[in-house]
């Protein structure tokens, strides 16, 4: 059986429905597991013979998402582009980071879905002036039928649906009811049980594809940031081009490198790591206002005034605090 055609019980040929996959997240920095999700999902649909995956889209969230360790969208987009140079079918969309503010995931899905629909349904309008966005899957007009955009995520993101106030019920219903969810297993999550315990998710269960990743890898952006801020190696955990970019830009409290000799300079860019001046600055800070909040701290070192951008760091509760910050945005 080809990947495009299936045979029914009468051995009649039928074109497989086309789908595209979009992963929303921080990608700070992007890890190979972010992209493995796409490969695992594509293989799954190919093996099942139920859908033809025409493209993959990675959509980094807006800077104002304020998650701990989130570096500027321009950096995250640049790292994604570098890491995806070797992929023929996974592309990055900068639409979210170009918006004036954080965008709910449902709106991200709707925007990309509408764009593809318009393109497929208006063939007489040419290639939209020859300026198709880079994330568009190729060859969409080779067939007239539509392409369903599904949200691709790890099981932890699915379970975040239960964080009170983080996701609006009507958004979840729209995402699973009208788009569909493709969930990759992740250590510590139990998506089957999670779906069973939710009436809403159970109602739309047929639109949720659960896929077991038989070669799990618990690399995460958090772990990468931790290693980098401690000056430890992340080689073989990240794409070499991404490592080079992080070093050149001095991200994640990595020592910066000069372009010519690539030796560390004396300047640190503080993003998420600990050091003495940050530790002492933290003691002076008033009680925490919220996660990922960027605070300008002026420290004095050896008589020289140094301005340091300090991103608050702390316990694991930061992440859920960050999610709570979205509560107001979705409770509309
Ligand atoms: N190791 C992994 N296995 C399965 N899914 C993953 C893995 N790492 C990330 N994902 C998924 O990738 C998507 C993007 O998530 P995100 O950028 O928050 O990644 P993360 O590495 O978990 O980040 P952080 O550590 O900063 O929370 C989410 O759907 C998440 O579930
Ligand atoms: N209500 C929503 O639409 C909603 C809530 C929380 C996170 N998200 C998105 O989920 C993605 C992953 O978030 P985390 O990195 O916090 O797990 C991000 O792209 C973020 O924008 C969406």
From TrEMBL:
Domain Cytidyltransferase-like span(s) in chain numbering: 22-226
EC nos: 2.7.7.1, 2.7.7.18
UniProt-annotated stretches for the region Disordered: 302-332
InterPro entries assigned to the protein according to its UniProt record, in alphabetical order: Cyt_trans-like (IPR004821), Euk_NMN_adenylyltrnsfrase (IPR051182), NadD/NMNAT (IPR005248), NMNAT_euk (IPR045094), Rossmann-like_a/b/a_fold (IPR014729)
SUPFAM superfamilies assigned to the protein according to its UniProt record, in alphabetical order: Nucleotidylyl transferase
Entries under Gene3D superfamilies matching the protein: HUPs
Record field: catalytic activity: beta-nicotinamide D-ribonucleotide + ATP + H(+) = diphosphate + NAD(+); nicotinate beta-D-ribonucleotide + ATP + H(+) = deamido-NAD(+) + diphosphate
One Pfam entry name: CTP_transf_like
Biological or metabolic pathway of the protein: Cofactor biosynthesis; NAD(+) biosynthesis; NAD(+) from nicotinamide D-ribonucleotide: step 1/1; Cofactor biosynthesis; NAD(+) biosynthesis; deamido-NAD(+) from nicotinate D-ribonucleotide: step 1/1
Keywords: ATP-binding, NAD, Nucleotide-binding, Nucleotidyltransferase, Pyridine nucleotide biosynthesis, Transferase
Enzyme class, UniProt record, top EC level: transferase
GO BP: NAD+ biosynthetic process
Gene Ontology MF term list: ATP binding; nicotinamide-nucleotide adenylyltransferase activity; nicotinate-nucleotide adenylyltransferase activity
Family note: Belongs to the eukaryotic NMN adenylyltransferase family.
Descriptive protein name: Nicotinamide-nucleotide adenylyltransferase
Native organism: Ceratitis capitata (Mediterranean fruit fly)
Lineage: Eukaryota, Metazoa, Ecdysozoa, Arthropoda, Hexapoda
The encoding gene: NMNA1
């Amino acid at each position: 059986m080809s990947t495009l055609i299936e045979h029914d019980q009468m051995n009649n040929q039928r074109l497989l429905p086309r789908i595209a996959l979009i992963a929303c997240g921080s990608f700070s920095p992007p890890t190979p597991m972010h992209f493995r999700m796409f490969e695992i999902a594509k293989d799954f649909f190919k093996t099942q013979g139920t859908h033809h995956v025409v493209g993959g889209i990675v959509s980094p969230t807006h800077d104002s998402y304020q998650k701990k360790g989130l570096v500027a969208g321009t950096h995250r987009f640049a790292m994604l582009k570098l890491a995806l140079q070797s992929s023929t079918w996974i592309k990055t969309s900068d639409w979210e980071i170009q918006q004036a503010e954080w965008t709910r995931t449902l709106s991200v899905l709707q925007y990309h879905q509408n764009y593809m629909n318009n393109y497929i349904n208006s063939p007489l309008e040419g290639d939209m002036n020859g300026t198709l966005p880079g994330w568009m899957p190729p060859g969409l007009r080779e067939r007239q039928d539509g392409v369903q955009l599904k949200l691709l995520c790890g099981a932890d993101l699915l379970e975040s649906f239960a964080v009170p106030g983080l996701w609006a019920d009507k958004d979840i219903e729209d995402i699973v009811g009208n788009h569909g969810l493709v969930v990759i297993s992740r250590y510590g999550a139990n998506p089957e049980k999670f779906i069973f315990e939710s009436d809403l998710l159970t109602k739309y269960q047929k639109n949720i594809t659960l896929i077991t990743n038989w070669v799990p890898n618990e690399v995460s952006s958090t772990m990468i940031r931790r290693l980098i801020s401690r000056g430890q190696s992340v080689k073989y955990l990240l794409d070499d081009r991404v490592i080079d970019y992080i070093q050149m830009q001095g991200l994640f409290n990595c020592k910066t490198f000069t372009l010519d000799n690539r030796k560390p300079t004396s300047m640190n860019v503080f993003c998420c790591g600990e050091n003495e001046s940050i530790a002492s600055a933290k003691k002076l800070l008033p009680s925490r206002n919220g996660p990922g909040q960027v605070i300008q701290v002026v420290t004095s070192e050896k008589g020289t005034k140094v301005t340091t951008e300090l991103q608050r760091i702390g316990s694991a509760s930061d992440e859920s605090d960050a999610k709570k910050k979205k509560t107001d945005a979705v409770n509309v």
